[in-house]
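Thread: Newbie trying to understand structure tokens

Hi all, I'm a second-year student working on a class project, and my supervisor (Dr. K.) asked me to get a predicted structure for one chain before our next meeting. I've only ever worked with sequences, so writing a 3D structure as a token string is new to me. If someone could post the tokens and maybe explain what I'm looking at, I'd be very grateful. Here's the chain:
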Amino acid sequence: MSGLALVTGASGFIGSQLTCALVERGWRVRAACRRPPEGDGIEPFACDLTAASSLPGIASGVERVFHCAGLLGRWGTRDESLHAVNVGGSLNLLDSLAQGSCGVFVHVSAGGVSGPRRERIVDEEVRCAPRTPYERSKHEAEQRVLERAARLGLPVVVARPTFTYGPGDSHKLGLFRAVQRGLFAFIGEPRSVIHPVFVQDLSRGLLLAAERGRPGEIYILGGPRPVTKRALVHAIADALGAARPRLRLPRPLAELAAAGLERAGRAVGFEPPLTRGRVSMLADNFGYSIRKARRELGYAPRFDLQQGVALAVRDYRARGLL
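---
Reply by user tm_fold:
Sure, no problem. This is what the structure looks like when written as tokens:
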């Protein structure tokens, strides 16, 4: 099946990969963002989701919507900005869709809305406890989108991607560089888990969510399985041909250092190499079950960790980033 699909955040990492996947399958894509891409099968639509006045006509003739736009929780990003984009922008988009017929709406949230866990693996039924401003903004967004969609009678499916990586990504580049340069240190227990998903697997999962997802439901989209932080970092080192990191910092020491670096960063105006959010990402459990997506969507990720990391490294090197 093909038609016209709307992709917000089409110039971003996930949005651009999803746009390519849709075009390859014969869809025309209305690429909505501030600086939309151009190309065969792509209809640029310049807009700012935080400005409702820029959205009229965004969903005209659209059969499916993939809301990939969002603001990441990078250092220095204000809480108010995260809320304005991730919550306010999502609701503005939803309101603009209510004026016409757009088919299914896939809202791209984040696996991290569950917050760091004592449990090594959780599913969609876990009681979310987001900790960072980014996690809280994404959690509030998915809750309010589901509530408003129910009132408006719009079929919304929520997808929660896990730790997404692959060609075109810039957000994980710092991790790869740290491993390559011998500057990476494990924090706390390296057997804590994370759940990587290769971006092409995620794109297929989002397409399946639009095709088979039940309105009002949430689906976690991850890779084949959670892995330990040690396994992830060792896979990166092996793909780079670098030494496997062995240094390990006690968590209390890392948190103390991160707090000091954050204060210095705010005072002097630089991005600290270590923050308390990064300490949590490296030390806490962020492992998920994809059983629901497998069962209901037929989701079956194809790229194991070694394959995906090797492709990411090849892309970074081709772009001169490593």
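A couple of things are worth pointing out once you decode it. The mean pLDDT is 93. Residues 48 and 157 are 23 Å apart (CA to CA). Feel free to ask follow-ups in this thread.
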